Amino acid sequence: MNVLGISGTPRENGNSDILLGYALKPFRENGWGVQHIRLREITVQPCRACEECKIKGECVIEDDMHLIYDALRWCDALFISTPVYSRNVSSRVMAVLDRSYALNNKRLLKGKVGGAIAVGRGTCGGQTITINAIYNWMLSSGVICVPGELNGVTAVASEPGDILKQEKRLRQAEILGENVLNVALKLRS
Fold first, then answer.
1. Would you list the DSSP string of 166-186?
2. Count of CB atoms situated within 10 Å of the CB of 18
3. Strand ranges for 8-96 from DSSP E
């Protein structure tokens, strides 16, 4: 079985990306195929609302989104992690969510399981709104949303790597990973 992690931080050693690594850890330990895509390393343009995907059956923008489409087909479980910008997902994640519109008729994610991670600079910085935005997208794509201890993983951190000082948040990311893994295995059997 395979798991996909999509990281939306533009920063090297970004806190949301670090938490994503912790969420993917249980899958590595259980022999799953793991793909960790860092959106800062590829180019995904925003949706143009041209509707060509409805005519041709696929998005016509030529960029690296095909890597995401392939990974979404490949995976059995999915995580999206993002820093919080303007009380929402990062623009890189938003581009991926918007561009997945081209796949809506194919329902590639139906029945797969997923989790969400959001890191903001301050308390009440929009982390809950961001988690809800990700889970709303997942639900509309047919993904079965799995909580961590409470919901997805939310954290407060500012400078790259700050999250490494927060053992509780690192453990919460692992718990989210364990929960997604357990649900995926139960669905598989």
1. -HHHHHHHHHHHHHHHHHHHH
2. 25
3. 33-38, 77-83
* Residue-number span of the structural domain to which 82 is assigned: 2-188
Q: Which of 89, 101, 108 is nearest to 47 (CA)?
A: 101
Whole-number pLDDT of residue 122: 82
User: Does residue 1 contact residue 33 with C-beta atoms inside 8 Å?
Assistant: yes
The pLDDT of residue 162 is: 96
CATH of the domain at 93: 3.40.50.360
What φ, ψ does residue 3 adopt, rounded to 5°? Answer: -125, 140
The series of mean pLDDT values per 10 residues for the chain, 189 residues long, is 97 96 98 98 96 90 96 97 95 96 85 97 88 96 92 92 96 98 94
The confidence score (pLDDT) of residue 95 equals 97
The residues near 162 (Cβ < 8 Å, ≥ 6 apart) are: 15
Overall number of domains in the chain: 1
Dig out the tokens for 84 from the structure: 């919080």
